[in-house]
Each structure stands twice: as C-alpha cells, then as structure tokens.
Amino acid sequence: MASNNINGPGFSGPGDPPPVPATVAEVCDNHSVGVVITDSRDRVLLITRATLPVGRAPIAGHRDDHGSVEDTARDEVAEEVQLTVTSLVRVVDGRWRTNACRRQHGPEGLGHRWTIFLATAAGEVRPDPAAASDAAWYTRAELRVLAGRTIAYATGALTAPQFAANPGLEPAWLAFVVELGLIDNVDPADLAATEILASTSPYTLPTARSR
Ligand SMILES: [Zn+2]
C-alpha cells in the first residue's frame, strides 16, 4: 500500500488491490445478492452491519451455495432479519462492481457481480446479532441523510471512527440507491469518491484494526 492516512478513508486507488489479512479464511465468490425491502409506508429496511465493511445497508450476502439468486435473497432475509420474503422483483442483474468485501479475493479478483431485488416481506424484524447490530425502516429523507454521511466520509469531512460511530450508507450501496431512484441530487464527483471508498479494503481503515 502506497499510503494510508489514519485520519481519512485511506484510499489506495482502485488499481491497487486492497489487502485482506491472512487470518481471514473465507473466500469471496464474486457474486453478491442485495434485497431492498420496502414496507407499506414505502420505507426501506436497512441493517447496521455487524461485519465489515462498516455501514447501514439493505440485506445482502454472497451467493455461495444458496442456489439461485432468488434462493439467496430469501435465505439472506431470513438469516439476517428473520423476515419471510413475499415478493421479489429483479432490478439489477449481474452487474460487475469493484467493491471490497471482508473475504479473501475470489477467482475474479476484487469485486462482485451484483443481483438486486426490490422486495416485500412479512414478519417481525429481528436482526441476527452476527449480521446486524440494528435493523430499522428508513424514509427517503432519512436515506438521504445517511447518503450524506457516506459522502462526507468519502470526501474526507468525516473520519473513519466518526463514520463507524454513526454509520451512513455502506459505500457500495450509494450508487445502487441512486440508480433505483431512492434518493436523488447526488453530485457525480461525490459518487465517484464514494466508489473509490467502496473499493478500498475495509481492513485498511483504522476502525477495522481492532475488530
Ligand atoms: Zn465478496
């Protein structure tokens, strides 16, 4: 790594493969499935992630051996918040993104092929502490505030510890949230800075070291 500012996001640039500690055994399968669940008031369910990368995010997980992407979506929703999916509409289909996860890089290197669903679900939200320290429904205005925190972090206005203490959206999700029309008025330069943050190893960020 060329440099790592302990007071900032520690960008190394997207061309610099970020390090993952050798103690991490899990290997990425380069395939992520995200599930954007809305309720009857059109609010979006986000978990506060208990694992790296830090952030609040829709339900998501690696496809691994779950089966189809639909199976993966249902399984991840059940595992992370104990809801039962009642509808799934695929809105992003196999999009490659160079976002970093907490695992060793997969066969295709740094990044994931993303499938995203809009979904509804039934039951009572009960987050699995292994996946989420919290789960809650967010209005569009609240999503915009969380996006603002992520942009502030990506552009150096918030430090990693400040972001971790009250996380905004997980960086990789900002582009999807904009694409899906859940928020608007995001400056392209802010989005670009957040994309760099999303491709930075979560282990290079100061708050990650004690986890
Ligand atoms: Zn991964």
Care to describe what's here?
The protein starts with 30 loop residues before the first strand and ends in a 13-residue tail after the last helix. It is 26% helix and 24% strand. A 4-stranded mixed beta sheet has the order 4-1-6-5, covered by helices on one side. The protein has a 3-stranded antiparallel beta sheet with strand order 3-2-7. It contains 5 helices and 7 strands. The chain is globular and about 40 Å long. The N terminus and C terminus are likely disordered. By secondary structure, it is an alpha+beta fold. β2 and β3 form a beta hairpin.
Give keywords.
211 residues; alpha+beta; Nucleoside Triphosphate Pyrophosphohydrolase; 4-stranded mixed sheet; 3-stranded antiparallel sheet; 5 helices; 26% helix; globular; disordered N terminus; binds zinc ion
Short description:
With 211 residues, the chain is α+β, with helices and mostly antiparallel strands.
Strand order of the largest sheet: 4-1-6-5
Helix content: 25-40%
- The second-level CATH architecture is Alpha-Beta Complex
Count of all domains: 1
Radius of gyration: 16 Å
Q: Termini distance?
A: 20 Å
CATH superfamily: Nucleoside Triphosphate Pyrophosphohydrolase
Give the mean pLDDT: 90
| Relative strand content | 15-25%
Largest sheet: 4 strands, mixed
The helix-and-strand class reads alpha+beta
Task: Let me know the number of strands.
Answer: 7
CATH class: Alpha Beta
CATH fold annotation: Nucleoside Triphosphate Pyrophosphohydrolase
Please report the number of helical segments. 5
Overall morphology: globular
Ligand kinds: zinc ion
Order of helices and strands: EEEEHEEEHHHH
Uncertain regions: pLDDT < 50 for 5+ in a row?
A: 1-15, 207-211
